[in-house]
Amino acid sequence: MIRPIYQSRRQRLPALAGGLFVLMVVTAFVGIALTALLAGRLSGGLLSAFADPVIRSVLSFTLWQAFLSTLLSVGLALPVASALARQPAFPGRIWLIRLMAVPMGLPVLIGALGLIGIFGRSGIVNDTLTGLGLDQPISIYGLTGILVAHVFFNLPLATRLMLSALERVPAEYWRMSASLGFSPFSTFRFIEWPVLARVIPGAAGLIFMLCVTSFTLVLIFGGGPAATTIEVAIYQALRFDFNPERAVSLALLQITVTGLILAGLSLLPAAPDTGVTSGRHFPRFDGRRPLVRLTDGLLLLFATLFLILPLGQVVVSGLQADLGRLLSQAAFQQASFTSLGVALSAGLLATLLAYGVIAARADIATARAQNAGNRVFSLALAAVSSLVLLVPTSVLATGWFLALRPRGEVATFAPFIVTGINALMALPFAVRVLEPAYREHRAGTGHLAESLGLSVTQRLRRVDWPVLKRPFLTALAFAMTLSLGDLGAVALFGSENILTLPALIYARMGSYRSTDADGLALILGAICLVLALIGAPGTRIAPNNPRERTDA
Predict the structure, then answer these.
(1) At a CB cut-off of 8 Å and minimum separation 6, what does 549 contact?
(2) Backbone phi, then psi, for 499, in 5-degree steps?
(3) Residue range 344-355, pLDDT digits in tens
């Protein structure tokens, strides 16, 4: 049994002070935005929202599209995960599993462009069907497009969650089912379903939360007022109508909806970690029948095509653009400089904030005196590190936009506000990356460092940093990737105040310069790929919370 590490007051005070500083900074940043929202509640606020038929329609569509997206994502992931589990020797299986990790870290705008290239009016699917004599039979816009896009991003997440659960089933279960002569249906009923039933509620809740807070996909595929979510309606109320009263009502409504969803999710089993699956080969005798192998093969082939075709379309279309001309344009250079600067600043800020939270909570957990104050402080740190779940980025951006606009300082402070919002967006992920490594490292070196009497600086430089620099780099790279793909906060402040690569891509799409948009998307994807390669491969970066993939 490992004895708890009791640190001296000299060792504990810097960590506790750092945790208190993080708590104050995040609380102040979010508090100012919420105060501006409440101060802007011009007439009735949240209660008046329910009397507005337009807002009721937006709320209804938000929940309806989230429900359908969740149903399709989980429903389609179920047979795909089962087929992957049944066919451990499927050619390219490991590459398909790795491919399913790409949409979860892909900037949403890039995936949207790929889907338009496949299912859009001039996409491959419509061109093929038109050649067969059908006249534009598929429309990617409206509810259909939103559902397709959400399934593209969330089906891989649900599949990996379910596959991870199936891979933990003891091998003896499969041997027993084979000896009893179970049919595929009996195997699913008595072995697979009891395991999946414990995973599906958490996975469904996770995906439902992502779809409720969806912004970029709905902005691109929504197709008008009839297909608008709350976050997009906030953007439209400020950017197009400049109706602060409606924006405030919608923002308060969004907080209420996310709060209720989070309360409901707390009652469900938590979705397990979605790290790299074990890849173990099980004696799945039920997958050896010719008909089952054929069915599973076709299913996995369609799943692979559904994921890889949009990504391949981005590459092909991007290479057809004049990349040299795009790279030489002043707008691209300005957007790149701004994006990289904001991403680096947000990544560093998120990583440092995460370290402050983790160090303080670890010291509180090992304190000799476990009083009520310590427990409240630890809970407050845990809550503040996931505050973006309750207060989405669109709400934060709205609050700060309303706070800065009367002073005429939106353009001056827009980059700093977007950096802060992106840092909060990445904070739960950074905590998830750093915390396991930090706790394991401190458990192994805590007694020795304490006995040597190292100062805080010496311990950081000689003991902690050599071991923790890889998790720090991973957290930084992933936080930068999230920030680079963000469009939500930037769109609200407007390209006249801050121009980033996603904002530039969206502007080129809006002006029907799709070739330029494809080329810029390819460049953005290449930058994100480099950052992904910098991070440690195989590191588990999925937080156990509903912002597994931030839909920027």
Answers:
(1) 103, 104, 105, 153, 154, 157, 210
(2) -115, 115
(3) 999 999 999 998
